[in-house]
Design brief:
single chain; mainly alpha; two-stranded antiparallel ribbon; 3 helices; 60% helix; DUF4250; DUF4250 domain-containing protein
Length: 60
C-alpha cells in the first residue's frame, strides 16, 4: 500500500527507486502500479513541486 500523504509518498518512491529499481517503469511493473495509479502518483508529487527525473532515477 502506497502512502497517501504526498511528502511520505515522495520519500517512499525515492527510497524504492534508489534501493531497488533502475527506473520508474521497473518499479511500476514490480509493484503492479497501472497507468491510472501512476498518473495519480505523479499528480500528487507534481502538486508539491516534484517531477520524475529519469537521469537521476528519482523525483526532484
Amino acid at each position: 500500500m502506497l502512502p497517501k500523504d504526498p511528502v511520505m509518498l515522495l520519500s517512499y518512491m525515492n527510497m524504492k527507486l534508489r534501493d531497488n529499481y533502475s527506473s520508474l517503469d521497473a518499479l511500476c511493473d514490480d509493484l503492479e502500479i497501472n497507468n491510472e495509479e501512476l498518473a495519480e502518483i505523479i499528480g500528487k508529487l507534481e502538486g508539491i513541486g516534484y517531477k520524475y527525473d529519469s537521469g537521476r532515477n528519482q523525483f526532484t
